[in-house]
Design a protein that fits this description.
- The complex is a heterodimer of chains A (about 200) and B (about 180).
- Chain A has about 200 residues and is an all-alpha fold.
- Chain A has helices at about 1-20, 25-60, 65-80, 85-100, 105-120, 130-140, 150-155, 165-190.
- In chain B, helix 2 (about 35-65) packs across helix 6, helix 6 runs antiparallel to helix 7 (about 120-130) and helix 7 packs antiparallel against helix 9 (about 155-180).
- Chain B starts with a helix and ends with a helix.
- At the A-B interface, helix 1, helix 2, helix 5, helix 6 and helix 7 of A face helix 1, helix 2, helix 6, helix 7 and helix 8 of B.
């Protein structure tokens, strides 16, 4: 998909530049964009390092684990098909907390483990269960407390106040997570998705 | 206090809570905070280096698209009511790329930051969109792939709809806070 989009951008730009006589600005933009890309990446390094360092402390001190234990009782209500003492409750909770903290590297293996735990409850192999769909819906709505990728980019670009986006992001992401829950619940009741 | 200042203050308080609260908690739990921090921070360079190829690919392609005049033609098709809301073609491109690739959408945000400025409405809206949506198709592929599930039922639909809500919520929230 991205292959097609990227090639499309290059070809269409060239064709239009030739048609409109914008060939010189087009050619000039290339090295400039490449240099901007490197400058942005370099600017990313500092803030990325800062957050990854802080999050490592959260991980090592057991803070992420503690928070996941805190939301475990809530999980039982969100996933009625999963027994409260099932290992999937703990792995799903840890994955969600890791996502909230932006620990993408730590969140993915936990998410895969959670899917494997959910699979043990699956009566029809190869077909997703309601709990799996709910888990993915909540996961991809990405409740994130500190969107540090975006903060780092704004800071790298020279923003006066790069962290201003934290509060609006929390509000927007709360909406998307709550709606993910409602959408998954509604869809799970549709006839065509029954087993 | 304006909504803008209020958002800035609350955002900064949350930031400080993380920045000071987490190491404080770690220290109380007997973690060697300094060494652990340095250990984690080392990955920062790795991530930045990993992202360079994506940034170069996107910034060059979108830069060409802009310089050729194609972006202006495309923007002409976007209803002016949307453009007045700050939803320019690059913001739209960010929202559409987001479910496909995290690195590519980060690249587009980088492009928005360089072309509109880091404190522009578009850059802030793009940042909030990035934070309130996910690389849904990638996550579904990885998570379901791990357990060999091919019949995904409504997982993709629910994920993409939630992303759409995330984008709409981002637009509304940014309009209210940043005007």
């Amino acid at each position: 998909m991205l292959n097609i989009i990227w090639l499309f951008l290059l070809v269409v730009s060239t064709v239009i530049a030739l048609a409109t006589g914008n060939l010189k600005p087009l050619v000039n933009s290339v090295p400039e964009s490449a240099m901007n890309a490197f400058r942005l990446a370099l600017g990313l390094t500092g803030i990325m390092a800062l957050w990854l360092g802080i999050m490592k402390i959260a991980e090592k001190s057991g803070l992420t684990e503690k928070l996941s234990q805190l939301i475990a009782p809530l999980m039982v209500r969100i996933f009625p098909g999963v027994p409260p003492d099932h290992p999937a409750v703990a792995t799903m909770a840890s994955n969600m907390i890791a996502n909230m903290f932006g620990l993408n590297n730590a969140a993915t293996p936990l998410g895969i483990k959670a899917m494997k735990d959910l699979e043990t409850l699956n009566p029809t192999k190869g077909t997703a269960t309601h709990a799996m769909c709910m888990f993915l819906a909540l996961n991809t709505s990405s409740l994130q407390l500190v969107p540090f990728g975006a903060i780092a980019l704004l800071a790298a670009g020279g923003s006066k106040d790069p962290t201003i986006i934290i509060f609006p992001t929390i509000i927007a992401t709360t909406f998307s997570t709550v709606s993910a829950f409602c959408i998954a619940r509604l869809l799970s009741r549709m006839k065509r998705y029954q087993d | 206090m304006s909504t803008n200042e209020l958002a800035s203050t609350i955002s900064n308080l949350i930031l400080i809570l993380f920045l000071v609260g987490i190491p404080l908690y770690g220290a109380l739990k007997g973690v060697k905070v300094y060494e652990t921090f340095v250990d984690g921070a080392k990955q920062g360079f790795e991530i930045a280096v990993n992202i360079i190829p994506y940034l170069v690919a996107i910034l060059v392609a979108v830069g060409m698209f802009r310089a050729s005049g194609a972006m202006d033609i495309l923007t002409g098709f976007i209803p002016s009511s949307l453009r007045d809301l700050g939803i320019t073609s690059d913001v739209l491109a960010l929202a559409l790329t987001r479910p496909l690739s995290g690195a590519a959408s980060l690249g587009i945000l980088g492009e928005i930051v360089t072309s509109h400025g880091p404190d522009s409405f578009q850059a802030r809206l793009g940042s909030v969109i990035l934070g309130s949506t996910e690389t849904t198709l990638y996550v579904v592929a990885v998570y379901f792939g791990a357990v060999n599930i091919s019949k995904t039922k409504y997982a993709v639909q629910a994920g993409l709809l939630a992303d759409l809500v995330g984008v709409l919520a981002a637009i509304v929230v940014c309009r209210i806070i940043f005007g």
